[in-house]
Amino acid sequence: MSKSLYWNFLGCEAAALAQLKGEYNAFQDETPLLVGNYLHSYFESEESHKSFLDVNKKKLYKYGKPEKGLKKQFTDADKMIKALKDDPSFPYIYKGNKEAIVTGKINGIQWMGKIDCLNLDAKNSYFVDLKTVDDFHKKHWDDGQHKFVNFAQQRGYILQMAIYKELIKQTFGINARPFIIAVSKQSTPDKAIYSIPDEDMQEQLNELQECQEHIRDVIKGTVKPIPCGHCDYCRMHKTLGSIQSIDDIEIF
Q1: What is the separation of C-alpha 164 from the centre of its chain, rounded to a whole number of angstroms?
Q2: Distance CA 196, CA 53 (A)
Q3: pLDDT tens-digit series, residues 198-217
Q4: pLDDT of 4 strictly over 50
C-alpha cells in the first residue's frame, strides 16, 4: 500500500477508492502539489529541477511560455528555496542520499516510501523530509479529533515519519532519527526543523496496524468503503434521504 493512498483513506474511504479507480480527482487544484515538487526537485539535483521545469512548463510559466516568466506561486517558491539556501545550517543537515527508496512490511502488508534526504552515517543516522506549509502557527481543524491541531498532526506527517523510520530500519538495518524541515509560503518565508517524539510515532503506528487490513479489504472490494459525509466527493453523491432534526446538525 502506498503512503499517499493511506493518507487519502484516512480522510474519506469512499473518495479515496473512487480516486484509485480513476473515477474522481481529489486534487482539483494541483498548484500546492506543484509548489512542493518544485522545491523538492531543486534540492534533489540540478538535473531533476531542470527536468521538472521542462515537463511542467505549461503549468509553471505564464501562458505556458518560459520567456513570460514563472507564475507568482513559483516565484514565491523561489523565495522559499532561497530561505533554505541562505541558512548556514541547511547544507550541513540536508546531506545524504536524495529520494532514497525504502520498502518493507508493516503487520504483513507491503509498503514503499521515498525519503527526501537519508543520511546513513552509522554513528549518527537520520533522515529529513521537506515540507511546505502555509503558516507554522495556523490552526488546522481535525475532523477525527474534533479540535484544532498543528499542521503536522492534521496532515498525517507524524505517521508518515513513523512509517519511513520503520521502512529504513527494514531496508538498511539502521534506526535513523526523523526530522522535518519546514518552510512557509508567507511573503517572508519562515523556516524550522522539527523532531518527532518516539511515543507519538508509536501511537500512530499502532493506529495504522488497527485499520490497514480494513483498508486493504476495501481496495479488494470485499468490504464497502465508509464515506465521511463531508468532503467534496460525498457532497457530489449525497441525496436528501431521511428527514433529520435540526438539532442533529454537526458543527465542525
Answers
A1: 12
A2: 33
A3: 999 999 888 888 888 888 88
A4: no
Q: CA-based diameter of the chain, in Å?
A: 63
Q: Which H/E stretch holds residue 113?
A: strand 109-119
For the chain, what are the domain ranges?
3-240
**pLDDT per residue over 109-141, tens digit each?**
888 999 999 999 867 899 999 999 999 999 887
Q: How many CB atoms lie within 10 A of CB 195?
A: 11
Helix, strand, or coil here: 26? coil
SS3 45: coil
Protein fold of 3-240? Lambda Exonuclease; Chain A (3.90.320)
Query: Nearest 5 degrees, angle CA 196-CA 197-CA 202?
Result: 105
pLDDT surpasses 80 at 1: no
**Alpha-carbon distance values, 43 to 10, 65, 86, 99 (Å):** 29, 24, 13, 10
Indicate if the pLDDT at residue 7 is higher than 50.
no
Compute φ and ψ for 179, nearest 5 degrees: -135, 145
Query: 126-133 and 177-184: which strand pairing?
Result: parallel
64 CB neighbour count, 10 Å cutoff:
12
pLDDT value of residue 240: 83
Place of cell 548556514: 88
The DSSP H or E segment spanning 15 is helix 13-20
